[in-house]
Design the sequence.
Protein backbone atom coordinates (compact mmCIF):
# COMPACT_ATOMS: atom_id res chain seq x y z
CA UNK A 1 0.00 0.00 0.00
CA UNK A 2 1.34 3.46 -0.82
CA UNK A 3 0.54 6.80 0.81
CA UNK A 4 -2.29 7.69 -1.58
CA UNK A 5 -3.92 4.28 -1.11
CA UNK A 6 -3.71 4.81 2.64
CA UNK A 7 -5.45 8.19 2.33
CA UNK A 8 -8.27 6.68 0.22
CA UNK A 9 -8.71 3.89 2.77
CA UNK A 10 -9.10 6.41 5.60
CA UNK A 11 -11.70 8.37 3.64
CA UNK A 12 -13.56 5.18 2.69
CA UNK A 13 -13.57 3.94 6.29
CA UNK A 14 -14.72 7.23 7.82
CA UNK A 15 -16.93 9.12 5.37
CA UNK A 16 -20.67 9.04 6.14
CA UNK A 17 -20.18 6.71 9.11
CA UNK A 18 -21.30 7.18 12.71
CA UNK A 19 -18.54 7.35 15.31
CA UNK A 20 -20.08 4.38 17.16
CA UNK A 21 -19.91 2.18 14.02
CA UNK A 22 -16.12 2.46 13.62
CA UNK A 23 -13.65 -0.24 14.54
CA UNK A 24 -12.15 0.26 18.03
CA UNK A 25 -8.97 2.01 16.81
CA UNK A 26 -10.78 4.50 14.58
CA UNK A 27 -13.45 4.99 17.24
CA UNK A 28 -10.75 5.86 19.76
CA UNK A 29 -9.09 8.26 17.31
CA UNK A 30 -12.37 10.08 16.59
CA UNK A 31 -13.21 10.33 20.28
CA UNK A 32 -9.77 11.87 20.82
CA UNK A 33 -10.17 14.33 17.94
CA UNK A 34 -13.79 15.21 18.74
CA UNK A 35 -14.20 14.61 22.48
CA UNK A 36 -17.49 16.49 22.84
CA UNK A 37 -19.35 14.95 19.93
CA UNK A 38 -22.02 12.26 20.18
CA UNK A 39 -21.22 8.72 19.09
CA UNK A 40 -24.26 9.03 16.82
CA UNK A 41 -22.68 11.94 14.93
CA UNK A 42 -22.07 11.42 11.22
CA UNK A 43 -18.49 11.79 10.03
CA UNK A 44 -17.59 13.55 6.80
CA UNK A 45 -14.12 12.81 5.47
CA UNK A 46 -12.43 13.88 2.25
CA UNK A 47 -9.03 14.21 0.62
CA UNK A 48 -7.23 17.52 0.64
CA UNK A 49 -6.71 18.65 -2.93
CA UNK A 50 -4.29 21.45 -2.07
CA UNK A 51 -0.49 21.17 -1.89
CA UNK A 52 -0.14 21.35 1.88
CA UNK A 53 0.77 19.12 4.80
CA UNK A 54 -2.85 18.07 5.31
CA UNK A 55 -3.77 14.80 3.57
CA UNK A 56 -7.39 14.38 4.69
CA UNK A 57 -10.00 16.48 6.43
CA UNK A 58 -12.47 15.06 8.94
CA UNK A 59 -15.63 16.91 9.91
CA UNK A 60 -18.00 16.03 12.72
CA UNK A 61 -20.88 18.46 13.04
CA UNK A 62 -19.28 21.91 12.71
CA UNK A 63 -15.71 20.95 13.69
CA UNK A 64 -13.11 20.19 11.04
CA UNK A 65 -9.73 18.60 11.75
CA UNK A 66 -6.90 18.54 9.22
CA UNK A 67 -4.90 15.32 9.32
CA UNK A 68 -1.51 14.37 7.89
CA UNK A 69 -1.16 10.63 7.36
CA UNK A 70 2.14 8.77 7.21
CA UNK A 71 2.88 5.24 6.10
CA UNK A 72 6.08 3.26 6.39
CA UNK A 73 8.13 0.95 8.52
CA UNK A 74 10.88 3.32 9.67
CA UNK A 75 11.00 6.53 11.64
CA UNK A 76 11.84 9.64 9.68
CA UNK A 77 12.34 13.32 10.25
CA UNK A 78 10.27 15.71 8.19
CA UNK A 79 11.87 19.10 7.68
CA UNK A 80 10.07 22.13 6.34
CA UNK A 81 10.74 25.86 6.40
CA UNK A 82 9.66 27.59 9.61
CA UNK A 83 7.55 30.00 7.52
CA UNK A 84 5.29 27.11 6.46
CA UNK A 85 4.83 26.12 10.09
CA UNK A 86 4.03 29.72 11.08
CA UNK A 87 1.46 29.90 8.26
CA UNK A 88 -0.06 26.66 9.55
CA UNK A 89 -0.29 28.10 13.07
CA UNK A 90 -1.91 31.31 11.81
CA UNK A 91 -4.40 29.38 9.65
CA UNK A 92 -5.39 27.44 12.77
CA UNK A 93 -6.02 30.58 14.81
CA UNK A 94 -2.97 30.39 17.05
CA UNK A 95 -2.56 33.83 18.62
CA UNK A 96 0.01 36.26 17.27
CA UNK A 97 1.55 36.46 20.74
CA UNK A 98 2.07 32.69 20.82
CA UNK A 99 3.61 32.72 17.35
CA UNK A 100 6.01 35.50 18.39
CA UNK A 101 7.03 33.54 21.49
CA UNK A 102 7.59 30.42 19.41
CA UNK A 103 9.79 32.34 16.94
CA UNK A 104 11.85 33.81 19.77
CA UNK A 105 12.39 30.30 21.12
CA UNK A 106 13.11 28.88 17.66
CA UNK A 107 15.77 31.44 16.73
CA UNK A 108 17.12 31.87 20.29
CA UNK A 109 18.80 35.15 19.38
CA UNK A 110 16.28 37.60 20.85
CA UNK A 111 14.51 38.12 17.51
CA UNK A 112 11.68 36.61 15.50
CA UNK A 113 13.65 36.55 12.23
CA UNK A 114 17.17 35.25 13.10
CA UNK A 115 18.68 38.71 12.77
CA UNK A 116 20.21 38.74 16.26
CA UNK A 117 23.94 38.90 16.80
CA UNK A 118 24.29 36.14 19.40
CA UNK A 119 22.34 32.94 19.67
CA UNK A 120 21.60 31.37 23.07
CA UNK A 121 23.22 27.94 23.44
CA UNK A 122 20.98 25.03 24.40
CA UNK A 123 22.89 24.55 27.67
CA UNK A 124 21.92 28.11 28.66
CA UNK A 125 18.18 27.53 28.22
Sequence:
Amino acid sequence: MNGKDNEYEFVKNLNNKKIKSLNPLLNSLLKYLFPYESEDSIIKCWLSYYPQKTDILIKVNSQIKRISLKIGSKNSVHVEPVKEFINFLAENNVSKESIVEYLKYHYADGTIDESGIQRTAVVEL
